[in-house]
Amino acid sequence: MSELLEPPLGLYVHLPWCVRKCPYCDFNSHVHKGALPEGDYIAALLADLEADLPLVRPRRVDSIFIGGGTPSLFSAESIALLLDGIRARLELAPGAEVTLEANPGTIEHGRFAGYYAAGVNRVSLGAQSFNARQLAVLGRIHGVADTERAVGELRAGGFTNFNLDVMHGLPEQTVANANEDIARALELGPPHLSHYQLALEPGTVFHERPPVLPEEEVAQEIESTTHARLLEAGYQQYEISAWARPGHECRHNLNYWEFGDYLGIGAGAHGKVTDARGGTLSRTLKTKQPREYLERARLGTLQNTMAEVPVEERPFEFMLNVLRLPAGFSVGQFEARTGLPLTAASPGLERAEARGLLERSGARWQPTPLGRRFLNDLQSMFLPVRA
Q1: In a domain, 289, yes or no
Q2: Whether the Cβ atoms of residue 285 and residue 222 lie closer than 8 Å to each other
Q3: Is residue 304 part of a domain?
Q4: Same domain, 252 and 331
Q5: Residue (of 229, 255, 230) closest to 245 by Cα position
Q6: pTM across the whole model
Q7: What's the pLDDT tens digit per position in 301-346?
Q8: Do 5 and 276 meet the contact criterion of CB atoms below 8 Å apart?
Q9: 339 and 239 share a domain?
Protein backbone atom coordinates (compact mmCIF):
# COMPACT_ATOMS: atom_id res chain seq x y z
CA MET A 1 0.00 0.00 0.00
CA SER A 2 1.07 3.60 -0.66
CA GLU A 3 0.36 6.44 1.73
CA LEU A 4 -3.22 7.73 1.44
CA LEU A 5 -3.23 11.52 1.61
CA GLU A 6 -6.09 13.94 2.15
CA PRO A 7 -6.91 15.75 -1.11
CA PRO A 8 -8.51 19.21 -1.42
CA LEU A 9 -12.02 19.50 0.03
CA GLY A 10 -15.12 21.00 -1.57
CA LEU A 11 -18.68 21.44 -0.35
CA TYR A 12 -21.72 20.66 -2.49
CA VAL A 13 -25.10 22.09 -1.41
CA HIS A 14 -28.24 20.70 -3.05
CA LEU A 15 -31.39 22.84 -3.41
CA PRO A 16 -33.84 20.35 -4.93
CA TRP A 17 -36.77 22.38 -6.25
CA CYS A 18 -37.52 23.62 -9.75
CA VAL A 19 -40.42 25.21 -11.63
CA ARG A 20 -40.73 22.35 -14.14
CA LYS A 21 -38.99 19.01 -14.52
CA CYS A 22 -37.14 18.91 -17.86
CA PRO A 23 -37.74 15.70 -19.85
CA TYR A 24 -33.99 14.89 -20.02
CA CYS A 25 -33.20 15.58 -16.34
CA ASP A 26 -32.22 12.69 -14.06
CA PHE A 27 -31.09 14.86 -11.16
CA ASN A 28 -32.83 14.79 -7.79
CA SER A 29 -35.13 17.71 -8.61
CA HIS A 30 -38.76 18.22 -7.64
CA VAL A 31 -41.44 20.58 -8.90
CA HIS A 32 -42.69 22.83 -6.12
CA LYS A 33 -45.78 25.00 -6.32
CA GLY A 34 -46.33 27.90 -3.96
CA ALA A 35 -43.87 29.41 -1.53
CA LEU A 36 -40.64 27.49 -0.98
CA PRO A 37 -39.77 26.50 2.61
CA GLU A 38 -36.57 28.53 2.35
CA GLY A 39 -36.03 29.22 6.03
CA ASP A 40 -36.70 25.63 7.11
CA TYR A 41 -34.50 24.23 4.36
CA ILE A 42 -31.56 26.52 5.14
CA ALA A 43 -31.82 25.49 8.79
CA ALA A 44 -31.87 21.83 7.72
CA LEU A 45 -28.79 22.31 5.51
CA LEU A 46 -26.83 23.85 8.37
CA ALA A 47 -27.88 21.04 10.73
CA ASP A 48 -26.77 18.59 8.06
CA LEU A 49 -23.40 20.31 7.78
CA GLU A 50 -23.01 20.41 11.56
CA ALA A 51 -23.48 16.64 11.71
CA ASP A 52 -20.81 16.12 9.03
CA LEU A 53 -18.14 18.29 10.63
CA PRO A 54 -16.41 15.42 12.49
CA LEU A 55 -15.67 13.87 9.09
CA VAL A 56 -13.52 16.77 7.92
CA ARG A 57 -12.32 18.98 10.76
CA PRO A 58 -9.89 20.74 10.86
CA ARG A 59 -9.66 20.75 7.04
CA ARG A 60 -10.56 23.87 5.11
CA VAL A 61 -12.92 24.15 2.15
CA ASP A 62 -11.54 25.29 -1.21
CA SER A 63 -14.84 25.58 -3.09
CA ILE A 64 -18.61 25.61 -2.62
CA PHE A 65 -21.10 24.65 -5.32
CA ILE A 66 -24.81 25.36 -4.81
CA GLY A 67 -26.66 23.16 -7.29
CA GLY A 68 -30.09 21.77 -7.91
CA GLY A 69 -32.86 21.81 -8.91
CA THR A 70 -32.88 25.53 -9.44
CA PRO A 71 -30.98 27.35 -6.68
CA SER A 72 -31.89 30.73 -8.19
CA LEU A 73 -35.45 30.16 -6.92
CA PHE A 74 -34.04 30.94 -3.46
CA SER A 75 -33.80 34.58 -2.45
CA ALA A 76 -30.49 36.35 -2.00
CA GLU A 77 -31.33 36.68 1.70
CA SER A 78 -31.61 32.89 2.04
CA ILE A 79 -28.33 32.34 0.20
CA ALA A 80 -26.69 34.87 2.53
CA LEU A 81 -27.98 32.97 5.58
CA LEU A 82 -26.66 29.74 4.10
CA LEU A 83 -23.18 31.08 3.34
CA ASP A 84 -22.93 32.88 6.69
CA GLY A 85 -23.80 29.60 8.40
CA ILE A 86 -21.20 27.69 6.39
CA ARG A 87 -18.48 30.25 7.17
CA ALA A 88 -19.34 30.00 10.88
CA ARG A 89 -18.74 26.24 10.81
CA LEU A 90 -15.92 25.71 8.31
CA GLU A 91 -12.77 27.54 7.36
CA LEU A 92 -12.87 28.71 3.74
CA ALA A 93 -9.65 29.04 1.78
CA PRO A 94 -8.72 32.60 0.79
CA GLY A 95 -10.44 33.34 -2.51
CA ALA A 96 -12.58 30.19 -2.29
CA GLU A 97 -14.73 29.66 -5.37
CA VAL A 98 -18.46 29.88 -4.57
CA THR A 99 -20.72 28.89 -7.47
CA LEU A 100 -24.49 29.13 -7.73
CA GLU A 101 -26.50 27.51 -10.52
CA ALA A 102 -29.18 29.71 -12.07
CA ASN A 103 -32.00 29.29 -14.56
CA PRO A 104 -32.36 32.30 -16.88
CA GLY A 105 -36.13 32.10 -16.46
CA THR A 106 -36.04 32.70 -12.68
CA ILE A 107 -33.94 35.84 -12.43
CA GLU A 108 -35.58 38.97 -11.07
CA HIS A 109 -33.98 42.37 -11.53
CA GLY A 110 -31.25 42.94 -8.94
CA ARG A 111 -31.15 39.36 -7.66
CA PHE A 112 -27.61 38.67 -8.92
CA ALA A 113 -26.36 41.73 -7.05
CA GLY A 114 -27.84 40.19 -3.90
CA TYR A 115 -26.14 36.85 -4.53
CA TYR A 116 -22.83 38.63 -5.10
CA ALA A 117 -23.20 40.56 -1.85
CA ALA A 118 -23.95 37.26 -0.06
CA GLY A 119 -20.56 35.85 -1.13
CA VAL A 120 -21.30 34.02 -4.38
CA ASN A 121 -18.49 34.79 -6.85
CA ARG A 122 -19.33 32.50 -9.78
CA VAL A 123 -22.61 31.74 -11.59
CA SER A 124 -23.44 28.73 -13.76
CA LEU A 125 -26.26 29.68 -16.11
CA GLY A 126 -28.31 26.97 -17.81
CA ALA A 127 -28.69 28.36 -21.33
CA GLN A 128 -28.78 24.90 -23.02
CA SER A 129 -29.59 26.33 -26.47
CA PHE A 130 -30.13 29.61 -28.32
CA ASN A 131 -32.76 28.09 -30.58
CA ALA A 132 -36.36 28.76 -29.45
CA ARG A 133 -37.66 25.51 -30.90
CA GLN A 134 -34.97 23.46 -29.19
CA LEU A 135 -35.64 25.15 -25.86
CA ALA A 136 -39.31 24.21 -26.18
CA VAL A 137 -38.45 20.57 -27.00
CA LEU A 138 -36.14 20.47 -23.97
CA GLY A 139 -38.96 21.74 -21.73
CA ARG A 140 -37.04 24.82 -20.63
CA ILE A 141 -38.98 27.64 -18.97
CA HIS A 142 -36.79 30.37 -20.46
CA GLY A 143 -36.33 31.88 -23.89
CA VAL A 144 -33.25 33.12 -25.72
CA ALA A 145 -33.86 36.70 -24.59
CA ASP A 146 -33.98 35.54 -20.95
CA THR A 147 -30.44 34.15 -21.23
CA GLU A 148 -29.14 37.36 -22.77
CA ARG A 149 -30.88 39.42 -20.09
CA ALA A 150 -29.55 37.17 -17.31
CA VAL A 151 -25.96 37.63 -18.51
CA GLY A 152 -26.47 41.39 -18.47
CA GLU A 153 -27.95 41.16 -14.97
CA LEU A 154 -25.10 39.08 -13.56
CA ARG A 155 -22.52 41.44 -15.00
CA ALA A 156 -24.40 44.41 -13.58
CA GLY A 157 -24.46 42.58 -10.24
CA GLY A 158 -20.66 42.42 -10.09
CA PHE A 159 -19.90 38.98 -11.57
CA THR A 160 -16.97 38.56 -13.92
CA ASN A 161 -16.75 34.77 -13.60
CA PHE A 162 -19.60 32.75 -15.04
CA ASN A 163 -20.39 29.61 -17.01
CA LEU A 164 -22.91 28.94 -19.75
CA ASP A 165 -24.32 25.43 -20.12
CA VAL A 166 -24.89 24.60 -23.80
CA MET A 167 -26.08 21.15 -24.92
CA HIS A 168 -25.53 19.46 -28.26
CA GLY A 169 -26.87 16.38 -30.00
CA LEU A 170 -30.38 17.74 -29.44
CA PRO A 171 -33.51 16.30 -31.08
CA GLU A 172 -33.30 16.85 -34.85
CA GLN A 173 -30.37 19.24 -34.39
CA THR A 174 -28.27 20.01 -37.46
CA VAL A 175 -24.59 20.90 -37.64
CA ALA A 176 -25.58 24.46 -38.54
CA ASN A 177 -27.96 24.70 -35.55
CA ALA A 178 -25.27 23.49 -33.15
CA ASN A 179 -22.68 25.93 -34.47
CA GLU A 180 -25.18 28.78 -34.26
CA ASP A 181 -25.67 27.92 -30.56
CA ILE A 182 -21.92 28.20 -29.99
CA ALA A 183 -21.74 31.45 -31.93
CA ARG A 184 -24.55 32.98 -29.86
CA ALA A 185 -22.94 31.77 -26.64
CA LEU A 186 -19.57 33.25 -27.59
CA GLU A 187 -21.19 36.62 -28.25
CA LEU A 188 -22.01 36.74 -24.52
CA GLY A 189 -18.33 36.25 -23.61
CA PRO A 190 -18.53 33.57 -20.90
CA PRO A 191 -15.15 32.79 -19.28
CA HIS A 192 -16.33 29.16 -19.03
CA LEU A 193 -18.57 27.06 -21.22
CA SER A 194 -19.94 23.59 -20.45
CA HIS A 195 -20.67 21.84 -23.74
CA TYR A 196 -22.12 18.39 -23.35
CA GLN A 197 -24.14 15.94 -25.39
CA LEU A 198 -27.75 15.16 -24.55
CA ALA A 199 -28.04 11.69 -23.03
CA LEU A 200 -31.25 9.69 -22.64
CA GLU A 201 -30.89 8.77 -18.97
CA PRO A 202 -33.02 6.04 -17.32
CA GLY A 203 -35.95 7.37 -15.34
CA THR A 204 -36.46 10.42 -17.57
CA VAL A 205 -39.30 11.25 -19.95
CA PHE A 206 -36.88 11.19 -22.89
CA HIS A 207 -35.75 7.69 -21.93
CA GLU A 208 -39.34 6.45 -21.88
CA ARG A 209 -40.34 8.30 -25.05
CA PRO A 210 -37.08 8.88 -26.96
CA PRO A 211 -36.96 11.85 -29.32
CA VAL A 212 -35.27 11.62 -32.71
CA LEU A 213 -31.60 12.43 -32.13
CA PRO A 214 -28.95 13.20 -34.78
CA GLU A 215 -27.34 10.23 -36.52
CA GLU A 216 -23.89 9.28 -35.21
CA GLU A 217 -22.10 10.84 -38.18
CA VAL A 218 -23.95 14.12 -37.67
CA ALA A 219 -23.27 14.05 -33.93
CA GLN A 220 -19.55 13.56 -34.58
CA GLU A 221 -19.50 16.45 -37.06
CA ILE A 222 -21.33 18.64 -34.55
CA GLU A 223 -18.70 17.85 -31.96
CA SER A 224 -15.69 18.34 -34.22
CA THR A 225 -16.89 21.64 -35.73
CA THR A 226 -18.06 23.20 -32.47
CA HIS A 227 -14.84 22.14 -30.72
CA ALA A 228 -12.80 23.74 -33.48
CA ARG A 229 -14.80 26.93 -33.04
CA LEU A 230 -14.18 27.00 -29.28
CA LEU A 231 -10.44 26.45 -29.76
CA GLU A 232 -10.34 29.25 -32.30
CA ALA A 233 -12.08 31.53 -29.80
CA GLY A 234 -9.35 30.91 -27.19
CA TYR A 235 -11.03 28.30 -24.99
CA GLN A 236 -9.21 25.22 -23.74
CA GLN A 237 -10.90 21.86 -23.21
CA TYR A 238 -9.75 20.82 -19.77
CA GLU A 239 -12.44 18.15 -19.24
CA ILE A 240 -14.50 16.06 -21.65
CA SER A 241 -17.40 18.56 -21.55
CA ALA A 242 -15.81 21.69 -20.06
CA TRP A 243 -14.09 24.58 -21.84
CA ALA A 244 -12.54 27.66 -20.26
CA ARG A 245 -10.39 30.63 -20.95
CA PRO A 246 -7.04 30.23 -19.15
CA GLY A 247 -7.46 30.64 -15.39
CA HIS A 248 -11.26 30.21 -15.41
CA GLU A 249 -11.55 26.44 -15.00
CA CYS A 250 -14.24 25.46 -12.48
CA ARG A 251 -12.16 24.61 -9.43
CA HIS A 252 -15.00 22.76 -7.70
CA ASN A 253 -15.70 20.42 -10.62
CA LEU A 254 -11.99 19.98 -11.29
CA ASN A 255 -11.68 18.69 -7.72
CA TYR A 256 -14.30 16.02 -8.49
CA TRP A 257 -12.45 14.92 -11.62
CA GLU A 258 -9.11 14.82 -9.82
CA PHE A 259 -10.65 12.48 -7.23
CA GLY A 260 -10.73 15.09 -4.50
CA ASP A 261 -13.00 15.09 -1.44
CA TYR A 262 -16.32 16.85 -1.00
CA LEU A 263 -19.06 17.01 1.56
CA GLY A 264 -22.57 16.83 0.18
CA ILE A 265 -25.42 18.41 2.12
CA GLY A 266 -29.08 18.65 1.17
CA ALA A 267 -31.75 16.23 -0.05
CA GLY A 268 -30.12 13.41 -2.00
CA ALA A 269 -26.63 14.95 -1.88
CA HIS A 270 -23.62 12.70 -2.40
CA GLY A 271 -20.18 13.12 -0.85
CA LYS A 272 -16.73 11.53 -0.76
CA VAL A 273 -14.44 11.68 2.25
CA THR A 274 -10.89 10.43 2.77
CA ASP A 275 -9.75 9.34 6.22
CA ALA A 276 -5.98 9.36 5.74
CA ARG A 277 -5.28 8.23 9.31
CA GLY A 278 -7.69 5.30 9.04
CA GLY A 279 -6.69 4.55 5.46
CA THR A 280 -10.27 4.61 4.12
CA LEU A 281 -12.30 6.27 1.38
CA SER A 282 -16.04 6.56 1.92
CA ARG A 283 -19.05 7.66 -0.13
CA THR A 284 -21.91 9.43 1.64
CA LEU A 285 -25.57 9.87 0.70
CA LYS A 286 -28.31 11.97 2.29
CA THR A 287 -32.07 11.36 2.46
CA LYS A 288 -33.40 11.87 -1.08
CA GLN A 289 -36.96 13.16 -0.79
CA PRO A 290 -37.13 16.84 0.26
CA ARG A 291 -40.22 16.37 2.43
CA GLU A 292 -38.64 13.50 4.38
CA TYR A 293 -35.34 15.40 4.58
CA LEU A 294 -37.10 18.42 6.13
CA GLU A 295 -39.06 16.25 8.54
CA ARG A 296 -35.93 14.44 9.67
CA ALA A 297 -34.18 17.77 10.18
CA ARG A 298 -37.11 18.97 12.31
CA LEU A 299 -36.92 15.82 14.43
CA GLY A 300 -33.13 15.83 14.63
CA THR A 301 -32.84 12.47 12.84
CA LEU A 302 -31.00 13.45 9.63
CA GLN A 303 -29.42 10.44 7.94
CA ASN A 304 -25.98 10.15 6.40
CA THR A 305 -25.49 6.76 4.77
CA MET A 306 -21.75 5.99 4.58
CA ALA A 307 -20.23 3.23 2.49
CA GLU A 308 -16.52 2.53 2.39
CA VAL A 309 -15.05 2.14 -1.10
CA PRO A 310 -13.42 -1.31 -1.15
CA VAL A 311 -9.71 -1.27 -1.89
CA GLU A 312 -10.18 -3.30 -5.07
CA GLU A 313 -12.63 -0.68 -6.42
CA ARG A 314 -10.42 2.35 -5.82
CA PRO A 315 -8.58 2.18 -9.18
CA PHE A 316 -11.90 2.19 -11.08
CA GLU A 317 -13.33 5.01 -8.94
CA PHE A 318 -10.19 7.06 -9.59
CA MET A 319 -10.16 6.38 -13.34
CA LEU A 320 -13.88 7.01 -13.69
CA ASN A 321 -13.18 10.62 -12.79
CA VAL A 322 -9.63 11.47 -13.82
CA LEU A 323 -9.82 10.01 -17.32
CA ARG A 324 -12.34 12.73 -18.18
CA LEU A 325 -9.37 15.11 -18.13
CA PRO A 326 -7.28 15.42 -21.32
CA ALA A 327 -4.30 16.09 -19.02
CA GLY A 328 -4.78 12.70 -17.39
CA PHE A 329 -2.99 11.96 -14.12
CA SER A 330 0.41 11.43 -12.58
CA VAL A 331 1.64 8.31 -10.83
CA GLY A 332 2.00 10.32 -7.61
CA GLN A 333 -1.58 11.55 -7.84
CA PHE A 334 -2.92 8.00 -8.28
CA GLU A 335 -0.96 6.72 -5.29
CA ALA A 336 -1.83 9.65 -2.99
CA ARG A 337 -5.56 9.64 -3.84
CA THR A 338 -6.07 5.86 -3.73
CA GLY A 339 -3.45 4.78 -1.19
CA LEU A 340 -2.34 2.10 -3.70
CA PRO A 341 0.77 1.55 -5.82
CA LEU A 342 0.26 2.10 -9.53
CA THR A 343 0.65 -1.67 -10.03
CA ALA A 344 -2.94 -1.98 -8.71
CA ALA A 345 -4.06 -0.47 -12.03
CA SER A 346 -1.46 -2.15 -14.25
CA PRO A 347 -3.78 -4.63 -16.03
CA GLY A 348 -6.10 -1.83 -17.15
CA LEU A 349 -3.25 0.49 -18.07
CA GLU A 350 -1.57 -2.17 -20.18
CA ARG A 351 -4.79 -3.05 -22.05
CA ALA A 352 -5.64 0.61 -22.64
CA GLU A 353 -2.14 1.42 -23.89
CA ALA A 354 -2.16 -1.60 -26.19
CA ARG A 355 -5.46 -0.47 -27.73
CA GLY A 356 -4.25 3.09 -28.21
CA LEU A 357 -6.66 4.57 -25.64
CA LEU A 358 -3.97 5.72 -23.18
CA GLU A 359 -0.44 7.00 -23.61
CA ARG A 360 2.27 7.74 -21.08
CA SER A 361 4.92 10.40 -20.93
CA GLY A 362 7.31 10.07 -18.03
CA ALA A 363 5.23 9.81 -14.87
CA ARG A 364 1.96 10.90 -16.54
CA TRP A 365 -0.80 8.93 -18.24
CA GLN A 366 -3.18 10.67 -20.64
CA PRO A 367 -6.18 9.57 -22.72
CA THR A 368 -5.43 9.68 -26.43
CA PRO A 369 -7.92 11.32 -28.82
CA LEU A 370 -9.25 7.80 -29.43
CA GLY A 371 -9.51 7.23 -25.67
CA ARG A 372 -11.49 10.44 -25.23
CA ARG A 373 -13.84 9.39 -28.03
CA PHE A 374 -14.42 5.97 -26.47
CA LEU A 375 -14.23 7.09 -22.86
CA ASN A 376 -16.74 4.56 -21.50
CA ASP A 377 -14.74 1.71 -22.99
CA LEU A 378 -11.54 3.14 -21.52
CA GLN A 379 -13.01 3.56 -18.04
CA SER A 380 -14.50 0.06 -18.06
CA MET A 381 -11.02 -1.43 -18.40
CA PHE A 382 -10.43 -0.62 -14.73
CA LEU A 383 -13.50 -2.38 -13.36
CA PRO A 384 -12.45 -4.85 -10.64
CA VAL A 385 -12.37 -8.50 -11.69
CA ARG A 386 -14.98 -10.45 -9.77
CA ALA A 387 -14.10 -13.95 -8.62
Answers
A1: no
A2: no
A3: no
A4: no
A5: 230
A6: 0.96
A7: 999 999 999 999 999 999 999 999 999 999 999 999 999 999 999 9
A8: yes
A9: no
Please state, in angstroms and rounded to a whole number, the distance separating the CA atoms of residues 212 and 186. 27
Same domain, 17 and 160: yes
Q: Does any domain span residue 270? A: no
Say how many C-beta atoms besides its own lie within 10 A of residue 353's C-beta.
Answer: 15
Q: Which of 200, 224, 256 corresponds to the end of one domain?
A: 256
Asked whether residue 284 is assigned to any structural domain, the reply reads: no
Nearest to 277 by CA among 339, 344, 332: 339
**CA pair distance 242, 223, nearest whole angstrom:** 13
The residues near 347 (Cβ < 8 Å, ≥ 6 apart) are none
Q: Which amino acid is at 30?
A: H
- Taking the C-alpha atoms of residue 125 and residue 193, their distance in angstroms, rounded to an integer, is 10
Alpha carbon 315 to chain centroid distance?
21
Domain that includes residue 354, residue range: 327-380
Asked if 289 and 351 count as a contact pair (C-beta separation under 8 A), the reply is no
Of 256, 288, 306, the residue that ends a domain is: 256
Same domain, 216 and 365: no
Q: Domain count of the chain?
A: 2
DSSP codes joined into one string, 274-318: EETTTTEEEEEEE--SHHHHHHHHHHT---EEEEEPPGGGHHHHH
Q: Which sign, positive or negative, has the C-alpha torsion 239, 157, 126, 260?
A: positive
Q: Are 161 and 122 in contact (CB under 8 A)?
A: yes
The per-residue pLDDT for 265 is 98
64-110 pLDDT, tens per residue?
Answer: 999 999 999 999 999 999 999 999 999 999 999 999 999 998 888 88
